[in-house]
């Protein structure tokens, strides 16, 4: 496992002030000595700094440079003799954070993989649950890829579900693709489905193509069908992760769940993966009506021809125009389900047409599918951020879901872009009333 390394304090000072330490402030040389020197050298510098005669011990304990004390520096480098002297003889506070990054001595030790120093601090009262803004000591050790440090922290009772607005430890391990660390956390009963960010640990592992992490999470009971905005099997097929596809299919992942653009995993496998990927998905995929030869060879040939057609602008333009007309005809007949199906086919032709997402969002809304309507409206806003109607579609979906405050804010933005829209203004005032009253 590759360890992630930060610039150390002495290196940072050298970059800041040059290599000639004789030209540095005494406090800076003092900090470097705490990092790499011995106790005797530390005392000698402190003696020369003790201009007011307060004593070497007082000077050592109270000297810092840019908010970093000798203890922080020694813990970062793992200089155990200096750490012992500072804590056992001078009684320096093992939980006092620096003023530069708000890191405690234990965080400096853990983030740099200095396990002996971390053990010493823990034995002398260091708070291992300390959280720096968005991350804990456990998060830091995971980020740097330090399994031994993580093993120690877990053995000392550090929770693997530590509160953080950043992400759960398991999310971070999956995001970084650290199967050894992921296994440790799962063995300590980490919830494979808990997440703070939009995506679950399984979805993060797939996004980063970490098949070992995918397998561990599935074995631990991760939801193999994901969320409404992320489909694990589709992502595995799109990335050509054969072993992940096998694992997900065996765990019961739905092979008939399309991605945002309406593409089934088997279609993605035919375009981006291998023949083997298509063979794995074929027995668990329902026949696609638009594929005339429903066989492994027939699917691959059909997708290949679709890809070729997408490379011809004229074919794409005509195909999309025909599909939009068919969808519009179905919508006029109030056949909203068929209209949504045809709009999905059109999105396969052009993934980046915001109007198609807008139209499909309206179909979903008419069918009472609020969440699907919102998903499409959000995509429409992403593609057309200056189009007022995109915000109207999103606001309407939010109103259906009774998320009145979000609807009010969304429609307010829409009116800024299109102040003449009567339908949006009407919905805006309805949202305002519900927001205020509810």
TrEMBL record:
<keyword id="KW-0040">ANK repeat</keyword>
<feature type="repeat" description="ANK">
    <location>
        <begin position="101"/>
        <end position="133"/>
    </location>
</feature>
<feature type="repeat" description="ANK">
    <location>
        <begin position="66"/>
        <end position="88"/>
    </location>
</feature>
<feature type="repeat" description="TPR">
    <location>
        <begin position="388"/>
        <end position="421"/>
    </location>
</feature>
<dbReference type="Pfam" id="PF12796">
    <property type="entry name" value="Ank_2"/>
</dbReference>
<feature type="repeat" description="ANK">
    <location>
        <begin position="133"/>
        <end position="165"/>
    </location>
</feature>
<dbReference type="InterPro" id="IPR019734">
    <property type="entry name" value="TPR_rpt"/>
</dbReference>
<keyword id="KW-0802">TPR repeat</keyword>
<feature type="repeat" description="ANK">
    <location>
        <begin position="165"/>
        <end position="193"/>
    </location>
</feature>
<feature type="repeat" description="ANK">
    <location>
        <begin position="197"/>
        <end position="229"/>
    </location>
</feature>
<feature type="repeat" description="ANK">
    <location>
        <begin position="228"/>
        <end position="260"/>
    </location>
</feature>
<dbReference type="InterPro" id="IPR051616">
    <property type="entry name" value="Cul2-RING_E3_ligase_SR"/>
</dbReference>
<dbReference type="Pfam" id="PF13606">
    <property type="entry name" value="Ank_3"/>
</dbReference>
<dbReference type="InterPro" id="IPR002110">
    <property type="entry name" value="Ankyrin_rpt"/>
</dbReference>
<dbReference type="InterPro" id="IPR036770">
    <property type="entry name" value="Ankyrin_rpt-contain_sf"/>
</dbReference>
<dbReference type="InterPro" id="IPR011990">
    <property type="entry name" value="TPR-like_helical_dom_sf"/>
</dbReference>
<protein>
    <submittedName>
        <fullName>Uncharacterized protein</fullName>
    </submittedName>
</protein>
């Amino acid at each position: 496992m590759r360890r992630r390394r930060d610039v150390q304090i002495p290196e940072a000072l050298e970059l800041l002030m040059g290599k000639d330490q004789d030209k540095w402030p005494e406090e800076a040389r003092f900090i470097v000595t705490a990092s790499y020197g011995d106790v005797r050298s530390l005392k000698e510098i402190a003696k020369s700094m003790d201009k007011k005669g307060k004593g070497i011990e007082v000077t050592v304990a109270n000297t810092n440079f840019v908010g970093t004390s000798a203890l922080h520096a020694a813990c970062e480098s793992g200089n155990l003799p200096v750490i012992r002297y500072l804590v056992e003889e001078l009684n320096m506070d093992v939980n006092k954070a620096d003023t530069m990054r708000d890191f405690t001595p234990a965080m400096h030790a853990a983030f740099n993989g200095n396990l002996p120093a971390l053990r010493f601090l823990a034995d002398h009262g260091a708070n291992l649950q300390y959280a720096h803004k968005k991350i804990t000591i456990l998060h830091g050790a995971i980020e740097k890829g330090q399994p031994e440090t993580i093993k120690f922290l877990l053995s000392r009772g550090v929770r693997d579900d530590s509160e953080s607005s950043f992400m759960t430890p398991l999310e971070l391990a999956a995001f970084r693709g650290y199967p050894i660390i992921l296994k440790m956390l799962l063995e300590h009963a980490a919830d494979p489905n808990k997440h703070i960010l939009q995506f679950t640990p399984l979805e993060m592992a797939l996004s980063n193509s970490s098949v070992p992490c995918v397998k561990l999470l599935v074995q631990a009971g991760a939801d193999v069908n994901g969320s409404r905005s992320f489909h694990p099997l589709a992502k595995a097929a799109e990335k050509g992760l054969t072993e992940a596809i096998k694992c997900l299919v065996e765990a019961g992942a739905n092979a008939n769940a399309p991605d945002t653009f309406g593409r089934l995993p088997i279609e993605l496998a035919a375009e981006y993966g291998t023949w083997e990927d298509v063979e794995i998905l074929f027995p668990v995929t329902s026949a696609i009506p638009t594929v005339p030869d429903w066989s492994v060879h027939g699917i691959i040939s059909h997708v290949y021809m679709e890809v070729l057609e997408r490379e011809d602008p004229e074919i794409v333009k005509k195909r999309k125009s025909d599909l939009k007309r068919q969808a519009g005809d179905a919508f006029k007949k109030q056949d909203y389900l068929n209209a949504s199906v045809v709009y999905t086919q059109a999105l396969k032709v052009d993934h980046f047409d915001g109007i198609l997402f807008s139209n499909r969002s309206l179909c979903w809304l008419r069918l009472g599918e609020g969440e699907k309507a919102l998903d499409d409206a959000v995509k429409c806003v992403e593609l057309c951020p200056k189009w007022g109607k995109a915000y109207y579609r999103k606001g309407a979906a939010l109103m259906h879901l009774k998320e009145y405050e979000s609807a009010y804010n969304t429609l307010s933005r829409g009116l800024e872009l299109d102040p003449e829209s009567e339908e949006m203004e009407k919905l805006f005032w309805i949202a305002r009333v519900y927001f205020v009253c509810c």
